[in-house]
Amino acid sequence: MSGLHVRLRQAGPIPLAVAFSAAPGELVALFGPSGSGKSTILRAIAGLYRPRSGRIAVDGTVWFDAGRGRFLPPWQRRVGLVFQSYALFPHLSARGNVMAALGHLPRAARRARAQELLEQVHLAALAERRPAMLSGGEQQRVALARALAREPHVLLLDEPFSAVDRMTRESLYRELAQIRRRLAVPAILVTHDLEEACLLADRLCLLDRGRILQEGPPAEVVARPVSAAAARAVGHRNIFSGRLVRDPGGGAGIAWCTRRLVVDAPPAIPDGAAVDWSIPPHAVEFTSAEAGDATGTVIERLRLGETEIIRLALDPDHATLTVHLPSSEAQEALAPGARVACRFPAAAIHVMLQGDAAGADAGGDGGNGGADETGAWQARSP
Amino acid sequence: MDWSALLLSLKLGALTVAFLLPLGIGIGRLLATRDFPGKDLVEALIALPLILPPTVLGYYLLVAFGRAAPLGVLWQSLFGHPLAFSFEGLLFASLLFNLPFAIQPIQRGFEAIAPDVREAAACCGLRPLAVLARVDLPLAWPSVLTAMVLSFAHTLGEFGVVLMVGGNIPGETRTIAIAIYDRVQAFDNAAAGIMSALLLAIALLTIALSFALGRRLLPPRRP
Question: Which of A222, A238, A263 is the last residue of a domain?
Answer without folding.
Answer: A222
